[in-house]
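It is worth pausing here to work through a concrete case rather than discussing structure prediction in the abstract. The textbook approach is simple: state the sequence, then state the predicted structure, then interpret. We follow exactly that order.
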Amino acid sequence: MELSPEAISELHDPVLVSNVLELLDPVLANGGVLVDGTLGMGGHTEAVLKAFPNASVIGIDRDPRAIELASARLAQFGSRFTPFLATYDQIESVIAQAGLSAVDAVFMDLGVSSLQLDDDERGFSYSRRAPLDMRMDQTGGMSAADLLASASEAELARILRVYGEERFASRIARRIVLTREEQPLTDSVQLAELVRETIPAATRRSGGHPAKRTFQALRIAVNDELTILERALPSALSTLRVGGRLAVESYQSLEDRIVKHLFKEGSTPLQMPKGLPIRPSEQPQAPLELLTRKAIQASEAEVAVNPRAKSVRLRAVQLNTPYNKQDKRSSQ
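Step two, the predicted structure:
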């Protein structure tokens, strides 16, 4: 079904827009290029293009439907917006294809998009019946149903424990294996009910839906999200010009931990060996400068309007020196 740009914009409320614009203002106010590494339906990109009339945006998304909808929404900006179908760890290749050697800013809005979460055919939600797909790019790769059918009990437990931080990972994995011997696990409600029945009743009374962590873990595993993020952050920094900025919105602790660690590591000056006759002015500068000492979170007012903003953590850095993604820095 074809949607108008107005209808597309109503499907998604971008999170912390004013904060993102404030962080990007110093590098985009007079023009420049932003890479939106997680384009989705283009909410943040639209805000950037409206706020900074001389700036342009390169949008990256792995979901062909997202590219289609965002392109329709952003057609009003003409050549100021250029979409690329890719995963955001391919940012260096995308920049090269765009004919650029560096950009002024990179923005990432991590996790599953509203487009994917609200589409009943994608299987991301535990509250509505849908095929257990969970692929952000449905043109290839293993679905969640495929993973549940083929992974060993030990691997399923590892996925749930590591990616979902699920206390009852082993118990749920065992139940999945026993169930699939009788019938395949193919839809979201079926899996959500299995998890609910497996978790102790006392635990089910608090902490939200009992299947939330399981669905998060499977989604991360199916889309290889954390591995891609670990590759994407250094690649993004290496594409920035000196003075450029990287801003990242995370929605769960695993993502935020990766972002926080890399930002902290990069903003720590390299310690020189003791005893060297080095003047203070000659101390090497850390490649990154923290722009957010603590993560920015959504206000109660924004959460009231957009409940999905509740868990967001926004962090940003500025590049002080050319970034070599091969360097292994230490704060020791």
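Step three, interpretation. The longest helix spans residues 225-239. The chain has a mean pLDDT of 88.
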